[in-house]
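Worked example

This section walks through a single chain of length 340. The input is the sequence exactly as stored; nothing has been trimmed or padded.
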Amino acid sequence: MRAIVVREFGPYREKAKLETLPIPEPGPGEVVVRNKASGVSFGMSLTIAGKYQRKPPLPFVPATEAAGIVHSIGAGVTRVSRGDHVMCNIDSGGSAGFNLTRDICCHIISKDMDFSVAAMIVLSYATSYGALHRRAQLKKGETVLVHGAAGAVGTAAVEIAKAAGAKVIAVAGGKHHCETALRHGADHVIDHREENFRDRVMELTDKRGVDIVYDSIGGEVTHQSIRAMAWEGRLLTIGYACGTIPEIPANLLLLKNISVMGFNLGHFFGWSPGGTRDQYVEIVDEILGGVLDLHSNGKINPEIGASYPLSQFNDALDAVIQRKVDGKCVITMSDADYGE
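Given that input, the structure is written out below as tokens.
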């Protein structure tokens, strides 16, 4: 099979190379999936560079979100069967013809679901669903401020919040990205390139502020978001796309009774210290089950903004980093990638 392989950390243009590898064989409790699509994210560039908070052992195949068809199963596997269509949250292996993973990392999808959509749901939508429902306990009628609202987790957050009956204020940069947020259901959109989002939020809420902030940006965006929050608001810190981890002023939390909460989906996947995937099977299944219910009922509409063949992996990562893609960027596999 063909695969993107990283043998040492560094710039992805230099270190992520297309190679030929043997098709993996499953051991007990393991599954081999014929990948049909995998997700591309900003965090992937940091992982390849060795700058992410979690470093996979070298060598590795990038991509932790994938979807495809079960190719073979090892002894003791009962969760899936050969031929099942699945989406996978994996340690690595998505950017290849096949990936080897544990059976508990595979989630069955309907055979009419697009594989690219499934590759987006398993991580981007699961992140937003878990953050808004499990952590922030979103309630109908509340107001949610979503930053980065044209990206993969951002569009997911907009749709999931709307499906829960919330009012959504979206923040994005530029007319095109703002239109994307509106298309996914935002009630109001703020172009941060044209106006101060904090001032506009306070206008839109009659100076009350928002109940929940979905913050995947960090830095000064986090500071200004706190100042745009309502009494007893909840700030969800999801990531730091701006490159700066904010130092949150505790006095503002005190003044407004604000709660700050992180949501690290990778912990439930067993990717973080202190967590093992086995502990959280039911939680992950509950989160993904909630997203799949929304999808089957037409409440969400995942947007695949760009699709690249495996051989153009680095071009796909360029497009994501340069913010040329709204929604999700995916890699799709062809017969040439399987090498059977």
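What to look for: The CA atoms of residues 222 and 233 lie 13 Å apart.
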